[in-house]
Design goal:
Layout (H helix, E strand, L loop, with lengths): L2 E3 L1 E3 L2 E3 L5 E6 L4 E7 L3 H20 L2 H17 L1 H12 L3 H18 L2 H4 L4 E6 L2 E9 L2 E5 L9 H10 L3 E5 L6 H12 L7 E3 L4 H9 L3 E7 L2 H13 L3 E5 L4 E5 L5 H13 L9 E7 L3 H13 L19 H17 L2 E4 L18 E4 L6 H4 L6 E7 L2 H10 L2 E2 L1 E5 L3 H10 L4 E4 L15 E2 L2 E2 L6 H7 L1 E9 L17
Parallel strand pairs: 1-5, 8-9, 8-11, 9-10, 11-12, 13-14, 13-19, 14-17, 16-17, 19-20
Antiparallel strand pairs: 2-3, 4-5, 6-7, 7-23, 12-22, 15-16, 18-21
Helix pairs in contact: 1-8, 2-4, 2-7, 3-4, 3-7, 4-6, 10-11
The structure holds nicotinamide-adenine-dinucleotide.
């Protein structure tokens, strides 16, 4: 009998009563568990628990709330290896990648521990004679977080710490492909002293998402996933009057100028192209080689790819794990056939890779296409796997125009030794997160994360200062204390002071 992965509502596991889905161990290809899929009744139950916990949690002092977050941070730090192993067992990424994910998650908890500073309002004394004006940032209420499969620990923790720090209560709907990390997080939050109901996990699929989007007691939605679903969540959530931030897909370009350090650029292309098997929204999927260096750069990238060890993420020798599910493996592999049919030059073919793991694992080795053009599906589509494309351009201006013509605008990077070129690139590129001689520019926890164009719907980025902004609404008070001495009360102040 396989394990059953349940919901977490009002401080305890709650078994589902309806549909379930398969969860895989991607390195063996076997079903490892069944996950419950919430129906409307379970959505109501989770939201009701969060609503019931709201007055107590938002009424808890700032010191009290941050004390829970400090304790949560310590527990995460102490048990980070366990969490990383959970991520690897359901997602497939190698444990060093999973450990990196957990480390970035902890960063966000640490940032949220600064809530007392972040939630200070403004105060203007004597804005008019005897009149003071001040602002306060108040929580929204019950907020929903809907996360993708590729960072089952980090993406929920992009939002949950700030949401809780601001005094909201939360219902998290994690990906049904790797749902266990969310339950581990729930257990640690409870152990850290978070009151029951302040954080709930609703397992499931579209039914659970639609339930949250329509629920009148859910005031805001933070979503991360693919662009079509992000657009749907944004439009549906806002049509129900909710505040929504919906982060979507990506097609990240890394531009390499002729004066770049090509070894540094090749290292970056391989680590950012194939880390987590390319299942990262900040993966590099297109290297834009500005001539005349393309031949040299492609050779250097291919050399490094040949040395990448593909295998079970639990083995310390593995550098790249399997894809998350059989269906995703089939989809990504089919793009290798598509690229060949479209006339791209297949430099390295990951199909039929010999992985250090079970035969039925969802393996696809690192794959490299050269001479990819914007009309090809391997260029236009987000493949979300270990398939890297090289597009060649004659000049810096052509490279910049190519990046800006792409409908996605999540991340990009430029590799160059020329500060003027780098400054022009960062100034003119229409992308939300930019690296200069840095491959994956995921901003640190005290900045915020978000793309432009089809990579983000809404106007607020995730975590950092914008996270605090998203999870609060501002109230401005204009106040006057008139002279009450006429009512017979004289506190001894001079008249009109
Ligand atoms: P996905 O869009 O398939 O799923 C995301 C979430 O939406 C999951 O919780 C899923 O259960 C739910 N969902 C799926 N289909 C739905 C539907 N029809 N209606 C309502 N809800 C639905 O994404 P994924 O495959 O889990 O994750 C990979 C995608 O996420 C990639 O496109 C990647 O670029 C993107 N991503 C973006 C960022 C970012 O910050 N911009 C970060 C991580 C991942």
């Amino acid at each position: 009998m396989t394990d059953r992965i349940s919901h977490w509502i009002d401080g305890k596991p709650v078994a589902g009563t309806g549909r379930t889905g398969d969860v895989y161990d991607p390195a063996t290809g076997q079903v490892s568990a069944q996950v419950d899929f919430a129906g409307p009744a379970e959505v109501d139950q989770a939201v009701a628990a969060a609503a019931a916990a709201l007055p107590g949690w938002r009424g808890t002092s700032l010191a009290g709330r941050t004390r829970v977050l400090f304790a949560f941070r310590e527990l995460l730090q102490a048990r980070k290896h366990e969490l990383a192993k959970i991520v690897t067992s359901e997602h497939g990424k190698v444990e060093s990648d999973a450990a990196g994910e957990v480390a970035r998650a902890i960063e966000n908890v640490e940032y949220a521990c600064g809530a007392a500073q972040m939630l200070k309002g403004g105060f203007s004394e004597n804005a008019s004679t005897g009149v003071d004006v001040y602002s306060m940032a108040q929580p929204l209420g019950v907020v929903g977080v809907i996360s993708p499969f590729n960072f089952p620990a980090m993406v929920p923790l992009w939002f949950v710490p700030n949401a809780l720090a601001c005094g909201n209560t939360v219902v998290l709907k994690p990906s049904e492909k790797d749902p266990s990390a969310a339950l581990f997080i729930a257990e640690l939050l409870a152990e850290a002293g978070l009151p029951s109901g302040a954080f709930n996990v609703l397992q499931g699929d579209k039914v659970a998402v639609d339930g949250l989007l329509a629920h009148p007691d859910v005031k805001a939605i933070s979503f991360v996933g693919s662009t079509p679903i992000a657009r749907y969540v944004y439009e549906t959530g806002t049509s129900h009057g909710k505040r929504v931030q919906a982060l979507g897909g990506a097609k990240n370009h890394m531009v390499v100028l002729p004066d770049a350090d090509l070894d540094l650029a090749a290292d970056a292309a391989v680590s950012a192209g194939f880390g987590s098997a390319g299942e990262r929204c900040m993966a590099v999927s297109v290297v834009v080689a500005v001539e005349p260096i393309a031949d040299d750069l492609v050779a250097k990238i291919a050399d490094r790819m040949r040395k990448l060890r593909v295998g079970d993420g639990r083995k310390p020798s593995s550098e790249m794990g399997p894809l998350v599910t059989r269906a995703h493996h089939e989809r990504v592999s089919s793009y290798v056939d598509t690229g060949v049919a479209e006339g791209a030059e297949l430099v390295m073919d990951g199909r039929g890779v010999e992985a250090d793991g079970a035969n039925d694992g969802f393996w696809l080795g690192p794959t490299l296409f050269d001479r990819v053009t914007p009309s090809m599906a391997v260029y236009t589509d987000e493949i979300f796997g270990p398939v890297l494309s090289v597009a060649r351009t004659p000049s810096f201006d052509d490279a910049l125009a190519l990046v800006n013509a792409n409908p996605y605008g999540n991340g990009t990077a430029v590799f160059t030794g020329d500060g003027r070129a780098a400054r022009r690139f960062q100034n003119e590129v229409e992308v939300g997160m930019v690296g200069v001689n840095v491959p994956i520019p995921v901003p640190v926890g005290y900045y915020s994360f978000g793309g432009w164009k089809d990579s983000l719907f809404g106007d607020t980025h995730a975590y950092g200062p914008e996270g605090f902004h998203f999870f609060t609404r501002t109230k401005v008070v204009t106040s006057r204390w008139p002279d009450t001495s006429h009512a017979g009360v004289n506190l001894g102040f001079p008249k009109n002071s």
